[in-house]
Write a structure and sequence with these properties.
24% of the residues are buried. A hairpin with a 5-residue loop joins β7 and β8. The longest helix has 12 residues. This protein is an alpha+beta fold. The termini are close together.
């Protein structure tokens, strides 16, 4: 058995437009931005959606949105989602990048939220 939940909604923006996108979304949602110097490609918007991380991610591709799913077993959650029709397209650090039916991307990553929040809101899978 393992557990998982939606952790983040990411607004993927081309690198040259990411700062402008972050400023727009910060103003539109009425929340401040925060950047971690260790992960400068992400600009988070604290409490834009309570309980979820919302961030602009600078990418080297076309603009899009994607979800991050956090789990206490990345391999089991990846297997569960591929059994449902997703295909793995890449890996980045401990993250598995999947393309789901419909063409969207989903990243499966180890638990990144507060452990108590994860325990309270994650679904359990056989």
């Amino acid at each position: 058995m393992h557990r998982s939940r939606v952790y983040a909604i990411l607004i993927d923006s081309p690198e040259g437009e990411a700062a402008e996108a972050a400023a727009f979304w910060s103003a539109a949602l009425g929340v401040p931005t925060r950047t971690d110097p260790q992960e400068p490609q992400f600009v988070s918007m604290h409490e834009a959606i309570p309980g979820l991380t919302v961030a602009v991610q600078a990418i080297d591709g076309a603009p899009r949105y994607h979800l991050d799913i956090e789990t206490d077993d990345v391999e089991a959650e990846t297997a569960r989602l591929t059994a449902l029709g997703a295909t793995q397209v890449a890996r980045w650090l401990d993250c598995h990048v999947l393309r789901v039916p419909g063409g969207q991307l989903v990243c499966v990553l180890p638990v990144a939220s507060d452990p108590d929040a994860f325990a309270a809101t994650a679904r359990t899978w056989p």
